[in-house]
Design the sequence.
């Protein structure tokens, strides 16, 4: 679907979307549309009691003036609209346009929200449109019998400014859609080797892509990660993506993703009910991949490294057993008491590798790590654990700005003691109580005092609540959050 920007002039015909502030007379393009229809739009508003209140719509079919229909969207009070509200409005516009089964619409965006120019307002609404229009039909033998929305023309007095601002928004939307595609893929099609191969084309955007094989990881001592993969017919991979948009002397920002392409639980096997959802246990890795695409496409002025550990957790005669002890890349030994607590084993080695090789300014890992975080926070917030107050606060701030909200959870020595072990240095599970916290405490042992955040995205990366800009089972959660963090606080 393509979004374009044109000067504020109504089309001769077709479907037109009009934005109406609450309690105000029709102005601009809305007033012009009313004149062309002989006052039909105003009469329809009066008859329906439509006042422009937020989250309301009025569909006027065949109003005249050669329009096939006009759809009015209530803005509420423009002074109260945040950038996120404008993106959500764009998503709602796209949703209604799709429901009309039309292939093109014109959107009259000639109003400005408080603190924003008319061009910025139009670009944010267009961002929401791009985020909303997504489908995953690759494996349908027959495509849905609907007319797809292919073109949205945004009409604005500042078409040039809106177009310039939209470039970055479109890059982020592309990254979100890429992440959604990865999470939605069936696990027989997206195993670790295939996942790694899909990262190689990102080199065309200017990213340096390095793919580590089991032999290379074995040489590095990454036995925690490799232990998870040893029961699968599909080999493990680690992919490192580097974006160099800042000064050569600047240490990079680092983002690390858990990429378990399917998780049976291993020998500690999961219940059968719902196991099909475990194709999404690579949601953290998908986010990192989408983020790196977005940063490269918008040519972010910062150095960034993204790393994903890719494994499949399967039970067979070679699989890791409960009670095994493995030696991680850090040299710390880990007692594997539960093979379904595998994601932290993968991250332990990747975190150590990244902090040891790249000396980053900070590390943020994302992982669909625990069911315990769902019990604590549901699906509205991701769990945030950190050793750095400033980084945690910044993520909280951009979380509310993007709608990808996080909630800080505690870390403390008392929780850390729970994962001490009598045979090994640490055990990979602390039991039922405080499960999300002890998982984060485990990871903290492998960050070596680097400023660090762990985001437990088990409730948000897959089957998250639908909203105006995300209707997909694979949400692409985290791409917008982390892109905003980078843009707002770390780009020069």
Sequence:
């Amino acid at each position: 679907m393509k979004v374009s920007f044109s000067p504020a002039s109504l089309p001769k015909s077709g479907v037109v979307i009009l934005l109406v502030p609450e309690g105000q007379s029709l102005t601009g393009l809305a007033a012009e549309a009313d004149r062309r229809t002989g006052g039909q739009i105003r009469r329809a508003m009066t008859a329906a009691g439509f006042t422009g209140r937020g989250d309301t719509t009025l569909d006027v079919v065949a109003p005249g003036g050669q329009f096939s229909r006009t759809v009015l969207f209530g803005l509420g009070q423009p002074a109260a609209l945040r950038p996120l509200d404008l993106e959500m409005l764009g998503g709602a516009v796209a949703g209604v346009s799709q429901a009309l089964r039309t292939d093109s619409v014109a959107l009259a965006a000639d109003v400005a929200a408080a603190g924003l120019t008319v061009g910025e307002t139009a670009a944010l609404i267009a961002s929401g449109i791009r985020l909303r229009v997504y489908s995953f039909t690759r494996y349908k033998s027959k495509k849905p019998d609907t007319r797809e929305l292919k073109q949205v023309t945004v009409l604005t007095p500042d078409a040039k400014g809106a177009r310039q601002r939209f470039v970055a928004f479109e890059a982020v939307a592309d990254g979100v859609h890429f992440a959604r595609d990865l999470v939605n893929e069936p696990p027989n099609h997206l195993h670790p080797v295939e996942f790694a191969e899909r990262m190689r084309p990102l080199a065309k955007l200017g990213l340096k892509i390095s793919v580590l094989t089991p032999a290379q990881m074995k040489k590095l001592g990454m036995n925690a990660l490799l232990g998870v993969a040893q029961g699968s017919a599909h080999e493990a991979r680690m992919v490192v993506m580097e974006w160099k948009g800042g000064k050569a002397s600047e240490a990079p920002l680092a983002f690390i993703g858990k990429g378990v392409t399917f998780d049976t639980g291993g020998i500690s096997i999961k219940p059968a009910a719902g196991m099909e959802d475990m194709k999404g246990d690579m949601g953290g890795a998908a986010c990192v991949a989408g983020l790196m695409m977005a940063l490269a496409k918008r040519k972010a002025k910062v150095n960034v490294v993204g790393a994903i550990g890719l494994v499949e957790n399967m039970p067979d005669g070679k699989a890791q057993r409960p009670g095994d002890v493995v030696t991680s890349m850090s040299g710390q030994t880990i007692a594997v008491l539960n093979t379904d607590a595998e994601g932290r084993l993968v991250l332990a080695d990747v975190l150590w590798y990244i902090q040891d090789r790249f000396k980053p300014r900070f590390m943020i890992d994302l992982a669909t790590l625990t069911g315990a975080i769902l019990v604590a926070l549901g699906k509205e917030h991701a769990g945030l654990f950190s050793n750095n107050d400033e980084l945690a606060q910044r993520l909280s701030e951009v979380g509310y700005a993007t709608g990808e909200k996080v909630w800080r959870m505690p870390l403390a020595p008392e929780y850390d003691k729970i994962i001490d072990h009598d045979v090994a240095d640490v055990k990979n599970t602390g039991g039922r109580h405080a499960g999300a916290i002890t998982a984060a405490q485990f990871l903290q042992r492998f960050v070596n005092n680097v400023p660090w955040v762990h985001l437990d995205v088990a409730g948000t990366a897959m089957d998250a609540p639908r909203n105006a800009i995300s209707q997909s089972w694979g949400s692409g959660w985290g791409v917008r959050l982390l892109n905003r963090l980078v843009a707002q606080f770390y780009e020069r």
The radius of gyration is 25 Å. Residues 172-490 form a domain with the Aminopeptidase fold (CATH 3.40.630.10). The chain has 15 helices and 17 strands.
